[in-house]
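Structure tokens please, single chain.
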Amino acid sequence: MQTKIQLNDYQIPRRWYNVMADMPNPPQPVLHPQTLQPVCPDDLRPIFPMALIEQEVSSERWIDIPEEVLKAYQLWRPAPMLRAHRLEAALKTPAKIYYKYEGVSPAGSHKPNTAIPQSYYNQQAGIKRLATETGAGQWGSSIAFANSLFGLETTVYMVKVSYEQKPYRKNLMQVWGANVIPSPSTLTQVGKKILEADPESPGSLGIAISEAVEDAATHGDTNYALGSVLNHVCLHQTVIGLEAIIQLEMVDDYPDVIFGACGGGSNFAGIAFPFIRDKINGKEIRLVAVEPASCPTLTKGQYAFDYGDTAKLTPVSKMYTLGHDFVPPGIHAGGLRYHGDSALVSQLYHEGLIEAVAYPQNACFEAALLFARNEGIVPAPESSHAVKGAVDAAIEAREAGEEKTILFCLSGHGHFDMSAYDAYLSGGLEDYEYPAAKIEQSLANLPKIDA
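Here you go.
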């Protein structure tokens, strides 16, 4: 009975897969935040190296992974795929459940898959420091780790509620040399304005992004790095799905349904995008993005042009959004608290190629405990959403008497998130479904664009 499906180092994908090459319709243009006209490469030069700008707009299907990036990937890739035999038995399901485990990375999540190339390309461009934001801390620790490999300094604006909930994530970033600042802060004009309006602001990813972008744009030796949402970030994450395809072929299997937790979209894109080619070509496969009910971007947001941050400093993209000034509650799945979604994920959802579902956090933690008590790995709160999707699908297969193959991305471990599990186990974890009236209020402030 095979449990682990493992690849050798030479089987790490040598090219990333670009879903834009196969999308039925080209993506909508990205607009300049001031002029609301399509951006050109020079507009992005103040915060990104040209190599990443080129990847952001490329329509090439395959993009080569640099050798230095591959060498760094070898510290933990290829990531294992496991068959969840014990979970299947506990659920008494005829379904086969596989999970791609990204928690084996040094940072404990999938985020280094893009942090490594972003750090590399910035170092090649002569950049000395990267400014970024982080929610739960997975991205902040990943870029700090990557920059420690390539000799760059790191400044991380960490959403204040997560900064307070997850002190060990902060410590991990500091181990790798990062300067970690709770956001909103008094170090940027954006942060000062937010605190003047609300001194007790818990922060949001939109606010933290604004602070990091302002930092990068006002320092010549500094660029900005983003851990999700953007096209090049989704591109880098496709190593997950590309490895998964090979691993499933090794056991002569193919998924009927794939689940990935979805905040900004990079984790979901990583596991799902490499399978979308098959879906476009007529293969029967479901690709399901799982989000929190308290930040239901795909399931309750509006498909519209919106800013990527609170202060309107970032380009305007067409995406599913709850509004750029939306401030979600301080749920423990901090990496899923972004107001918008990847433009690519959003378009694929709008065109019916992928699905989305939202769950409250208590139901996700219940599934996470079931998984941990059978498979041994404690999922990150974000990852628990994918676990919940897989568990529900397995139960549906049991009730229907169908032999389904389920794949999900276990995007990280929860070793730095035990305060969240403590809250759940003590009965102190509250479900929060964001009021429709507040979502409508936030959506009323979308930019007025005829498109």
